[in-house]
Write a structure and sequence with these properties.
By secondary structure, this protein is α+β, with helices and mostly antiparallel strands. 53% of the residues lie in helices and 19% in strands. The chain is built from four helices and four strands. A four-stranded mixed β-sheet has the order 1-2-3-4. The longest helix is centred in the C-terminal third of the chain and has 21 residues. It is elongated.
Length: 110
């Protein structure tokens, strides 16, 4: 039931490497803290094909989307066919609340 937490200084969403690392290492969930204050949560139950992911991004960039939006659209497209998931704000807040509750409980019993 391990989780992973890391930063993305450029404040981009989870990359295909993030999803694949999550899957390969058996992490229950992954979290990314961005320098602009955004937090992403994600899960992966299978490996994602990096070439397909990059092709989606390239396609969205050619349509005029910026890098951030192209990556978000590529992740949304992948989540329709692959067993990966980007957490919603509500799901993410629920996880944060759960973590804070567990941390408080541990402090009180220490």
């Amino acid at each position: 039931n391990a989780i992973t937490l890391h930063t993305h200084p450029s404040s981009m969403p989870p990359s295909v490497s993030d999803f694949n690392s999550c899957f390969k290492n058996g992490y229950k969930k992954g979290f990314i803290a961005c320098h602009n204050g955004k937090i992403f949560g994600y899960t992966a139950n299978e490996e994602v094909n990096e070439r397909i992911y990059n092709m989606y991004i390239e396609s969205f960039l050619k349509e005029g989307f910026n890098e951030y939006d192209a990556q978000m659209k590529a992740l949304n497209k992948l989540s329709q066919t692959d067993d990966i998931k980007k957490m919603s704000k509500e799901e993410l807040q629920k996880e944060i609340d759960k973590f804070e509750k567990e941390a408080k409980k541990k402090r009180e019993t220490a």
